[in-house]
Amino acid sequence: YSRLALLLASLKPDGPVNIIFMVVKRKQINNVINLFVKSNPRAFYSIEDVRSVSELPTGAAHRISRRRNCNYLKLCLPFSLHAIISAALFTRAFFIYNRNSIMPRTIVITTLFLIAFLPYTLPTGVAAQNDPNVARNLPITGRAVPQLQAFDAAMSEFMRVHSVPGASLALIKDGRVVYARGFGYADRDSRETVRPESIFRIQSLTKTFTAIAIMQLVQRGIIALDTHVYDYLALEPFLASGDTFDERWKLITIRQLLQHTGGWNRDATYDPLFQTARIAREMGRTPPASAEDIARYMMGQPLDFDPDSKYTYSNLGYLLLGRVIEKASETSYHDYVRINIFRKLNMRSMMPAGGGLEERAPNEVRYYSQSNRMTTAWFGQYRGQSVPFAYQYPLSVHDSAGGLAGNVLDMARFVVALDDPQFDGLLSSESVRQMQAQPPGAPGLDADGKPKNPYYGFGMSVRRYADSRNVWHNGALQYCCASRYAYIQSRRFGWVVLFNIRNNPDGKHLTALIGDVIYATERKIDDWP
């Protein structure tokens, strides 16, 4: 049985495998483990995971695991351990078959066959979950930086623990990009790796660029922060039969849209950017609805609260800002930010994000969810076909709210610009100050009536200190992806991370988890390149 176990151990798929097993004498199990630890120690880096073997009662089926994702009769260990332990258990039963008739020969052979081949039938996302091989063998691309190897290890471990297929990370120190690397897989099926040049959807990081565009137009005197949006856009509200116009729409200003105080609460009602098919049908149009359709439709709906009375994050507000930019500049949103922001910062990869699977750009990663959820495409080339849930949204309508894509290198160039008081010439110092200022009135106060800290400025979150500011923004799209940039002014340290999945298996947003890892690792670095 030693030879058979070695044969099975040579099969090394990516992760764990379901096994039904019968426990025989504990002493013999432990002898087998000890034998192979001595003969092949590299295969047993997770030997601590099987310490419960010696505690199993004879003749019972159990689980050997401390992993949260293991079910009854599931052995969640690296496959090399699966093969060795299971082969030892089953072949031991086979050798005493003639004497004790413990189990039929056919069951033994069938089970060993399943052990060998079942891993290849498992979804890659399941197989890789919580497997130390993911961290140990995770592909890392981009130029290695010896002084910053701690970030290689920290990012690899983060991806293992949280079951992340692919990501890219860039670090900025003292106004320079000092690190940019890709981790894991852009496409799990083809094993295409993530590179620093790989394109990701950046979701709501887009809002920062929208806010900068607005402030450029304010500087030029074309619009003002207190311009009333309803009158400026002069769009005709779509009112269904019997509906009445909510006059509070006429009070909403550009400043309020920038600070998410316009009057919409998506948790109380809905987010119209994800209701484009329904809105188009109600308006008598072919789905999906356009950005202007959504603006007109929502102008016919009542607000959820009085403008400027409280802060509630709103994609709709930033969709409306995109329409303001288009009217003020007499060009499309994407053309405006390309010419006036991305070209100036040499951010050449930035582009409109595609929503459908057929719109995936060259060099763009694929997007995943922990549940591998599928849906039926209702637009585009794959209409009527089953597609991953990440490809169900027509992102053209998200343009100014979350519709950009790009690589981590270009996003790092933007964070470098944040090191400059004028954002590397994009804005005046006064405009930057306004972007990072505390919101006036109730939206800028917490429940105790004290100034919020942190708070949302114009297109970015801000944490205020006596002589400096930290700024950041998160991005996320359901069943798709996540992103974050951050800049710590006092330490002149910044970072950008892009993921091709949104949550970990527990449903927690990756953007809420990665910050602590980045800052803990930063504190370990004494010698920056």
Query: What is the CATH class of the largest domain?
Result: Alpha Beta
Largest sheet: 9 strands, antiparallel
Report the total helices: 19
CATH architecture of the largest domain: 3-Layer(aba) Sandwich
Briefly note the structural class of the backbone: alpha+beta
Number of strands: 16
- Count of domains: 2
Per the CATH scheme, the topology name of the largest domain is Beta-lactamase
Concise structural overview:
This protein has 529 residues and is α+β, with helices and mostly antiparallel strands.
Describe the structure.
The protein is an alpha+beta fold and 529 residues long. The protein folds into 2 domains: 2-123, no CATH class; 201-522, 3-Layer(aba) Sandwich (Beta-lactamase), CATH 3.40.710.10. Helices cover 34% and strands 13% of the residues. The chain contains 19 helices and 16 strands. It has helices at 2-9, 26-39, 79-95, 97-100, 105-117, 124-127, 132-137, 149-161, 206-219, 229-233, 254-258, 276-282, 291-299, 315-329, 333-342, 399-402, 408-418, 429-435, 511-522; strands at residues 17-18, 74-75, 140-141, 166-173, 176-187, 192-193, 200-201, 351-352, 374-376, 386-388, 404-406, 455-456, 461-464, 469-477, 481-488, 493-499. Strand 12 and strand 13 (461-464) form a beta hairpin. The longest helix has 17 residues, at 79-95. The protein starts with a helix and ends in a 7-residue tail after the last helix.
